[in-house]
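Students often ask why we bother encoding 3D structure as a string. The short answer is that it lets us treat folding as translation between two languages. Here is a chain of 269 residues written in the first language.
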Amino acid sequence: MHEVGFLNMLKIWDTVVDGREAKIPIRIYYPTENRIKGVVVYYHWGGFVAGSIEESDGECRFIASNCGCTVVSVGYRLAPRYRFPAAVVDSFDALRWVYEHAEELGGDKSSICVTGVSAGGNLAAVVSVLARDSGIMLRCQVLVQPVIGFDPYSESARIYGEKGNPLDMDSIIDFTTKYLGDLKEAFNPLFTPILTNPSNLPPALIITAERDALRDQGEAYARRLEEAGVPVFSIRINGIGHMLDERHGRFVNLMVAAYLRNVLLQQLQ
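And here it is in the second language, the structure alphabet:
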């Protein structure tokens, strides 16, 4: 989705972690020997049915290089072969593995962040809730054009969900149906995190796009967190839709990396 170019890493390590339901592939990026203390867990885009560690390799290299910390990319199971909540289970199991191995990865249990794009943003948001409920206190969550639920009635969905847009309602319905199996599951907070209690969730950066059908739900989630006292930066990028071009993708990834770096450096002060 975001073309950012190839960046050399000090080390990249592909491994598999044991989840409750499946073995989960992960890729670990070590940018330099002099990393800042922290680990970022990344969940890829793809509408819950596509995307992979390989396809998001450039983004993870870019974030690791510009943030200066370890990044762990998670290859969660995809629908329709593995329906909801398989991706949630894998995403949280991978986070828990990172939590248990944080010092080996270059951080500690108090310096873990999560980030994701689109469907990955949904998983990052849901994992943040599960982490809080499990006593894992994340440093922050970064949600880029996130799916926050099934919302065909908002202004952005009605205007920018029409055919001809990068992400139209037919595609949203197709992805959501393949992932959930039954649209009744759209009311499950493991898919729609705005339905959960937002108290004590980690600080958030939420990035939306003006011409994206998902815009309003992402911004509604930002308001929901803010009303609960969660520190939130909500940024809307004007003039673009759901699929970011190279220039905007690079700009967004720079914002993500800068925010993560700032959050992780604050703990050292």
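Translate back mentally: The chain has one domain: 11-266. Keep this in mind for the problem set.
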